[in-house]
Design brief:
about 180 residues; mainly alpha; two-stranded antiparallel ribbon; flat
């Protein structure tokens, strides 16, 4: 449980930094750190499907937000603060890798006892609970349908967001694809 507390402290610190910094690009990076922390927390709580989904949505959102703010804050990011930017980037990467390492160590082994018990439940109780003969269909469409629908919806919304940001409005007011 110590890992979760450390991840939560990291997320709180990143959220405070996101609110208190002056430039938008640093704020966007700090918000991205909060999302990466949340993905790591999902991984530590043994929810890898949520962790992967959060990571995909977070990366796409970060791309959109950086694209929207990079032109506004480019003089700041190109100024003489490259040493600070490099050191802080390496620091956040090391923290993320350490949290990911600890979280991955705590995952059960492939085919471990919790997974075996769940698989046995699905195989033994599938027909009695739903009347379905195909266990794969049962799991995908009966037990995990809302989860799959939510994941697909999040991917579609993130893709639409990326496409909306990637378009460029010309001087005539038309939307042109960026080259």
């Amino acid at each position: 449980m110590l890992e979760i507390h450390l991840i939560l402290l990291f997320m709180i610190a990143a959220a405070i930094i996101a609110v208190s910094v002056k430039d938008m690009l640093s704020s966007v990076v700090a918000v991205g750190a909060v999302g990466i922390g949340l993905s790591t927390a999902f991984l530590a709580l043994k929810a890898p499907d949520l962790a992967i989904m959060q990571l995909v949505v977070e990366i796409l959102s970060l791309i959109i937000l950086v694209r929207a703010t990079i032109h506004r804050d480019l003089p700041f990011s190109a100024s003489g603060r490259w040493a600070f930017n490099t050191i802080s980037t390496i620091f956040f990467i090391l923290i993320f890798l350490a949290c990911a390492y600890v979280s991955l160590l705590n995952l059960p082994a492939f085919g471990g006892s919790p997974l075996r018990e769940l698989s046995k439940f699905y195989i033994d109780e599938a027909r009695a609970l739903t009347g379905a003969d195909n266990v794969v269909e049962l799991i995908a469409l009966r037990f995990r349908a809302y989860d799959s629908l939510g994941e697909a919806t999040a991917l579609v919304v993130a893709t639409i967001g990326v496409l909306a940001i990637a378009r460029k409005v010309s001087k005539r007011g038309r939307v042109d694809e960026e080259q």
